Amino acid sequence: MTVSQAVNTFEAADSVDTPNTITWADAESDLSAWLGNSMQTTAIQALYDLQKSTFASNDLALIGDWRKLQASDHFYYMCTKWFNDGDIHAYFSPYENPYDAFIAFMNVYRDIQFRLIQKGFEVQ
Q1: Parent domain of 70
Q2: H/E element holding 84?
Q3: For the chain, how many structural domains are there in total?
Q4: Whose CA is closest to 98, among 110, 114, 87, 112?
Q5: Structure confidence at residue 18 (pLDDT)
């Protein structure tokens, strides 16, 4: 049964009010694992700033590369938390530290930005 089928088949037993995003990650169980520091917010904002130009390019390779940068792992690897949460981030990350993850992300971002400029698009 799909989710839609279940919704249409069964009556809700109750409702849950969740005004804030809830995640599985870290002690806070919020978005701070992905958007809790300035590297993460800079990276996501830079990525979103390229959306309009990237889609306007109609270049499937560029659009595909832009979409791959949206993977949550990139932002998770940039997390700078300490103690148990930090240990878990470090365990899963292929980078030596969160700063290397940010540099790698921004290098790919700059590559996409450069490719858009080569195609004549204005980028921020």
Answers
A1: 32-118
A2: helix 83-92
A3: 1
A4: 87
A5: 82
pTM above 0.70, yes or no: yes
- Provide the residue type at 90 as one letter: A
What one-character DSSP code corresponds to residue 15?
Answer: -
Token pair in block for residue 3:
């989710």
- CA 91, CA 68: separation in Å to the nearest integer? 22
CB 57 within 8 A of CB 121: yes
In tens, the pLDDT along 50-59 reads 999 999 999 9
Q: At what angle do helices 98-118 and 60-68 cross, to 10 degrees?
A: 160
The closest alpha carbon to 29, from 40, 21, 17, 38, belongs to 21
* Structural domain includes residue 36: yes
pLDDT of residue 91: 61
pLDDT tens digits, residue range 72-91?
A: 999 989 988 765 555 555 56
